[in-house]
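Lab meeting, item 3. Inverse folding demo.
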């Protein structure tokens, strides 16, 4: 950086670049990526598009990679390809080059049909993988096998057993077998521990990648507001069994909180970072009922897959207290909801008022540091400054780092893209370790059981609102001061 000016270097390529302090071994040889549950929603909307983006950027080399879809539905290779084709190219619209890449990518995909609890299908899958390995490797390549479980957790144990018995990498070729498991990892502490034990008997912790896609987002830290402008349309059956705390707060928001509140790790090594996150989780005090507001939007129960008397919260605000030297007395407010007034995810750090304010409370609001995760990724500092002019009056303004403006032409990778690449590279930094998962469930299980037993009831709120008014009252009680009349507008180009 020169004096008086600055410049930005664009990273033209970071393919195979080792990340500092993380031991990556450059590997060559056959890489088989198996998407189990390939017929499903997540596979078509997230997993295959992420693989396509990695392929387009050269991280998945056609001479090394083969992709397998596996599920019970009886379809051909081409039928699977046709199901996912329309999801591969991002919103921007497809260029002729994109379409050419889509065709090349789809040619790498094969489909195998089979059940999740019998050996027949998995033996067939192993045969298909082994044949491509022989074809790709010649004599000295590696056998790398990545199994992505885009499946309901109820089948994880049997699927893991089948992989272990039928589909492990060929050790005579070297390489590895890794499995990626989706949330929800259980429904409470006991069921999560049971699942962890079942999978842990089959695979080493270093082979298990518990994915939380919030950890793959570009801007991830403490999160005080999380709002969505859509309800549970089409997912009511799943959602009603889990509710907003299990769906978003216990995992995504808590992970983000850990990254904000943790102390500096000894190094960037995944285990050092995860050690610090566990310390934060273990320092969280039991949740008090009067620091929780639950809501359910009007109309939620109209979904035919939702029971008429459902007590499931679609909204929650929860105050967490971290009992350690740094954070004693600071409320961490986690808020998430369906069918709210806007769809956004952000971390908002509000600064206390300065004691002995010489402006005699004429300031418009408190200073805040905001990290906007989505949409319009940005970091901005909301500040009270002097209104330019002869008068000594104040106004709110911001120092704004908006990514769209600052990093023009740079495509921000999708969370799943980054995380799948991490799995291939063997980097577990952004995945949830077993003890982290346990500590996270320890925090929320007592509250969840009280909700499940009907001891706490959700309050109604209107779709398109901020949630129940009681939630704003809780924020205020916790010490958060809402700013009125100031709105940050993401800059347009
Ligand atoms: N969809 C999303 O946006 C997100 C999903 N997830 C998680 O990812 C995983 C997959 O989600 P999603 O794709 O939405 O799920 P789906 O309900 O679409 O299920 C995926 C596939 O699993 C098979 N399947 C469904 N139900 C059962 C069952 N009861 N027993 C055995 N097999 C079944 C079906 O394939 P077939 O019948 O062909 O075998 C289905 O195509 C889940 O754990 C979910 O919580 C996480 C974040 C977001
Ligand atoms: O895991 C889930 O996350 C999505 C929100 O993810 P985002 O990347 O779109 O912010 C949420 O809508 C869904 O209910 C939940 O299962």
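The presenter then showed the designed sequence:
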């Amino acid at each position: 950086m020169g004096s008086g000016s600055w410049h930005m270097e664009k990273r033209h390529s970071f393919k195979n670049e080792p990340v500092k302090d993380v031991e990556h071994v450059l590997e060559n040889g056959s890489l088989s990526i198996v998407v189990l549950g390939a017929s499903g929603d997540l596979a078509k909307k997230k997993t295959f598009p992420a693989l396509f983006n990695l392929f387009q950027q050269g991280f998945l080399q056609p001479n090394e990679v083969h992709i397998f879809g596996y599920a019970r539905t009886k379809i051909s290779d081409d039928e699977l390809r046709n199901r996912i084709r329309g999801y591969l190219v991002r919103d921007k619209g497809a260029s002729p080059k994109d379409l050419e890449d889509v065709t090349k990518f789809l040619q790498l995909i094969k489909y195998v049909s089979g059940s999740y609890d019998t050996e027949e299908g998995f033996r067939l899958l192993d045969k298909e993988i082994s044949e491509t390995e022989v074809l790709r490797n010649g004599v000295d390549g590696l056998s790398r096998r990545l199994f992505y479980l885009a499946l309901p957790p109820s089948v994880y144990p049997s699927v893991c057993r089948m992989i272990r018995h039928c589909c492990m990498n060929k050790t005579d070729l070297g390489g590895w077998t890794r499995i990626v498991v989706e949330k929800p990892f259980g429904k409470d502490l006991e069921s999560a521990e049971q699942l962890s034990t079942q999978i842990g008997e089959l695979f080493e912790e270093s082979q298990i990648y518990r994915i939380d896609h919030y950890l793959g987002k570009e801007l991830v830290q403490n999160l005080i507001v999380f709002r969505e402008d859509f309800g549970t349309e089409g997912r009511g059956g799943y959602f009603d069994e889990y509710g907003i705390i299990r769906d978003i707060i216990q995992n995504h928001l808590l992970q983000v909180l850990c990254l904000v509140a943790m102390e500096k790790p000894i190094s960037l090594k995944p285990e050092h970072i995860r050690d610090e996150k566990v310390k934060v989780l273990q320092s969280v005090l039991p949740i008090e009922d009067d620091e929780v507001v639950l809501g359910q939007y009007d109309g939620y129960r109209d979904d035919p897959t939702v029971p008429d008397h459902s007590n499931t919260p679609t909204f929650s605000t929860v105050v967490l207290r971290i009992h350690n030297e740094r954070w004693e007395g600071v409320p961490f407010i986690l808020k998430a909801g369906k069918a709210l007034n806007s769809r956004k995810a952000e971390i908002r750090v509000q600064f206390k008022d300065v004691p002995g304010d010489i402006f005699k409370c004429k300031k418009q609001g408190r200073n805040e540091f905001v990290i906007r995760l989505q949409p319009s990724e940005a970091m901005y500092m909301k500040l009270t400054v002097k209104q330019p002019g002869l008068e000594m009056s104040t106004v709110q303004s911001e120092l704004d780092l908006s990514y769209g403006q600052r990093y023009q032409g740079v495509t921000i990778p999708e969370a799943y893209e980054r995380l799948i690449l991490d799995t291939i590279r063997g980097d577990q930094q952004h995945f949830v370790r077993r003890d982290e998962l346990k500590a996270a469930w320890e925090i929320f299980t007592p509250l969840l059981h009280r909700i499940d037993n009907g001891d706490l009831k959700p309050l109604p709120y209107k779709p398109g609102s901020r949630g129940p008014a009681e939630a704003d009252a809780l924020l205020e009680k916790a010490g958060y001061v809402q700013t009125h009349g100031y709105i940050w507008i993401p800059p347009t180009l």
